[in-house]
Amino acid sequence: PAVTAATGVDALTHAIEAYTSLKAFSMSDIYAVSAIKRIFDNIYEVYSNGSNLQARREMAIASLEAGIAFSNASVTIVHGMSRPIGAMFHVPHGLSNAMLLKVCLPYIKPGATARLNHLAKEIGVYRQGMTADEGADAFVVATIALLSTLNIQTPAEFGISRDEFFQAIPKMSSDALASGGPGNTRRVPNQEEIEELYRKLWY
What we know:
Layout: H1 2-20, H2 26-48, H3 53-73, H4 77-89, H5 93-108, H6 113-123, H7 132-149, H8 155-158, H9 162-178, H10 191-200
Helix pairs in contact: 1-2, 1-3, 1-5, 2-3, 4-5, 4-9, 5-7, 6-7, 9-10
C-alpha cells in the first residue's frame, strides 16, 4: 500500500504540475486534467484494496496521461524540491513528491488560482457560488486530505535527522532552483521561499 500511495501521488504531482506549469498548453491540459480525475477516483481504492485490478488499470492509464502531460509541459516546484531530498536522504522519488505537495500546493495557489479552481470543478469539490479563490482553496484542501488518508510519511517518520535536514536546506534549495523546475511555477519562488517551504515539512 505504501508503494501504491507514493507512486500514485507521484503521478498526481506530475499532472498537477503539468496543468499549473507556465509551459502548459491545450493538449497537455487535456491529459493532465484526465489524469487528475482518474487518480482522485481510484487512488484510495487501490491503496486500500490492492487486488482491485480495474482500479489499478485506471491508475496505470492516469500515470500514462500524467507522463504525457509533464513530458510536454514540464514539472514545477515540487519536482525541483523533491530531487535534492532524494539525493541527500535517499527518500524514494514518489514519497518525496508526496511529502512536498502538502506545502507546495498552498504556495503556488496565488499564481494558479483559476487553474486550481477549474480542478476543483473537475474533481467535484467546487460548490455553486464559490469564488475562484474559494474553489482553488477547495482543491488544495481536498488534495491535502487525500495525502492524509494515504498516510504519507513525514521526513521525520521516514527517519531523517532534523538537524541534518536543516543543515542541508541551503544546498537543497540552491539545487532545486538550479534544476529549472521552480522557474516553471506560476508563482516563481526565490531561494528564501524555497528554504521556508523545506522548513515547513517539519511542522
